[in-house]
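In practice, a research group might receive sequence data for several interacting partners and want a quick structural hypothesis before committing to experiments. The following worked case mirrors that situation: the sequences arrive first, and a predicted assembly follows.
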Amino acid sequence: MRGGQSKWSLGRQIWLTHASRNQRIHVSTTIHDCKQIDLKKIADPRGNLTFIEGGRDIPFEIKRVYYLYDVPGGAERGGHAHKDLQQLVVAMSGSFDVILDDGYEKKRVHLNRSYFGLYIPQMIWRELDNFSSGSVCMVLASNYYEESDYYRDHVDFLLALKASHERPVS
Ligand code: TYD
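A structural hypothesis for the assembly, expressed as tokens:
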């Protein structure tokens, strides 16, 4: 840990201050900031237990939980990015894929264990597909639902990224 930043700070801030020069450095989130988090698992012959504590096991306090279920074969979900929201996606049952896109690079992540979480910081375009029958996708979110936090148009998302890179650094 350096400069007082927590181990989670990488994907959370768009702007960092370079302490020695008092300069602002632009740091965009990328797909490499999307991390698989190994959640704690209490193995027990009566059935396993996993828990998630906001701010401890994941890099944000949890304000909202939602889940996708009864997803028909071939359906796709997501198809948007968030301006500020951070999320943790967990395959509580079955499996599905998450396609991550930071405007430059893409990667596909297969989730199929309820003790793995995929952390997605702000400004990452995501799509979900390849849902297995009976799968349940649980999402922990850092804030309440707010439609104004969404980019639902990929071109708007790319333009916002471009604008943020062109912002003067002072
Ligand atoms: P959306 O986020 O587009 O779903 P997904 O990314 O899983 O495909 O949301 C679908 C609809 O549900 C949309 O009308 C907004 C609404 N919604 C809420 O009202 N509250 C929520 O917490 C979420 C996630 C969605």
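Before designing any experiment, note the following. Residues 64, 66, 68, 77-78, 80, 145 surround thymidine-5'-diphosphate (CB under 6 Å). Residues 12 and 68 are 25 Å apart (CA to CA).
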